[in-house]
User: What shape does this take?
Amino acid sequence: MLKRLFRLSFLAVIVWAPIPGFAQQSSQEKAPQEKEQILWQKLEATIGGVDHNLDGVLGVAILDLATGQKYVLHADAVLPTASSIKIAILAELYRQAQQGKIKLSDLYTLQSSDLVGGSGIAGALTPGVTRLTIRDVAALMISVSDNSATNIIIDRVGMENVNTLLDSLGLTHMRLRRKMMDVKAAAEGRENIATPREMVQLLEDLYRGKVLNKQMTEDFFAILSVHKESYIPRELPEDLRIANKPGELEGVRNDSGIVFTGNHPFVISVMTAYLRREKDGGDAIIRIATAAYQMFDRLSRSSQYGRVVSLHDTGNP
Assistant: This one.
C-alpha cells in the first residue's frame, strides 16, 4: 500500500512539475511588444524635451490606429483651435449631405458680403459672377483655409448643428463659437476651442466610420488630404498621405490630422498657446510630428524582432 502511494505521488510530481523552458517561452512571446514600448518611451522623452524648451503651453495627443495605444501630454487643456476647428465644420457638412439636407453639388454664387479678412483665393474671385459647388467651397475652406469659404459653410450647416454633432460624439470641450475673423466675438471670449484629446477622438471617430458612411468618409478624407501649407507634413515624405488641418492665431499654432503610415496609421494633435514666438510653436509641431512618424514608420515596416524591411534593402541575409 505504501509502495503504491509513493508511486502515485511520484507521478503527480511529474505531471505538475513546470515544463523546462515554458516560462522562458512565455516571456519571449511578450518581448516584441516590450521592445515596441521602448520606442514609445523614446518618443515620450523627445516630446518631453520639446515641452521643456518651449516658451508657451503645449498639448499633445497621439493615437496608434492599429493598436489603440495612446500618448498624451496636457491633452485635456482647452486651447484655441484657430482654423483646426474647420475639421468639425467639414464633418457636419458631410453629415448633412449624407442625410440629404445638403447637396455637395449645389452651386453657390460668391457675394461681396461673403468676403472677410483671410479670404485667400475667394478675395481674388469675382463676386456676383463666380459660381462654385458647395464641395468646392469646402475644399477652399480646408486646402487654403479660406475664411470667407468657411463662413459660407457655417451659414449653410448652422453653428449649433456643428456643436450638436460634437455633443453626440461626447466631445464636450470642442466648440464652434464664432465665425472666422469675428474679432469682436473673440474679444468677448467666444473663442473656437478644443483639447488635443478631443481633436484626436473626432478624427478617430471619422476614420472608423462612426460619423459618416463609407462613401462620405472616403470623400471627407479626400478633401482633408489635399496638400496644404502646414506643420505635420513639413519634414515627412512628399508622397505620404496626410489628412490634416493646421491653425494659426496670435500666440497660437496648431495642427491635427491622420498620417497614413503603412499598417500603423496614427492620429496626432499638437496644440500650442501663450507662445512668446509663434515660430517656436510651429517648430515644436514639426519636431513632434517627425518623431512620431519615424517611430510609426519603423513599426509599420519591422518584423516582430525589430528588423526594418524596405523594398530597397540589399543587406546580407
